[in-house]
Write a structure and sequence with these properties.
Largest sheet: 2 strands, parallel
Strand content: 5-15%
Oligomer: single chain
Distance between the termini: 52 Å
Radius of gyration: 22 Å
Number of strands: 2
Length: about 150
């Protein structure tokens, strides 16, 4: 486990079942996570298929997968890795029907979200252009959190 500072080493070698590594960009989160997984598989005999590693970006996921394959070889292929978003979507597709969510649900992009909000406002008898004094672009194009603030 080269190139880890004391805090990173503590996270990589922690006896805790779960470890959350929060740090700024370029601080070594992916390197720490890779070292942690390597430690679990090699030193603690944790089966790779029992490990879930979530990252914030697809780039970090690819980097993590590459590092793990370099360190662990074939067992790295059985790890469950992905972005928080991708892992959540996977879980919802697999288990969503248990709570009434169809497996073919759709996550709306900007245009789909705009159309749905517009349709809902019209169905509720409201002006889809938004309240007086608020531009329709800001009202309908903003993320939901901004749209809620406008309402």
């Amino acid at each position: 486990m080269k190139a880890l500072d004391a805090d990173q080493m503590a996270a990589a070698r922690s006896a805790a079942a779960r470890v959350l590594v929060l740090a700024g960009p370029g601080s070594g989160k992916t390197r720490t996570l890779a070292a942690r997984i390597e430690h679990l598989v090699r030193d603690r005999a944790v089966p790779a298929e029992r490990i879930l590693a979530a990252t914030f970006t697809r780039r970090a996921t690819r980097e993590l997968q590459g590092r793990l394959y370099d360190r662990l070889g074939t067992p790295a292929r059985t790890l469950k890795t992905g972005t928080f978003h991708a892992l959540a979507v996977q879980a919802l597709r697999q288990h969503g029907p248990r709570v009434g969510l169809p497996v073919d649900f759709v996550i709306l992009g900007r245009d789909g979200r705009k159309a749905l909000v517009e349709e809902s406002l019209v169905a509720a008898g409201l002006d889809p252009r938004g309240p007086p004094g608020v531009s329709s672009a800001r009202f309908l194009d903003a993320p939901f959190t901004d749209s809620k603030m406008v309402l």
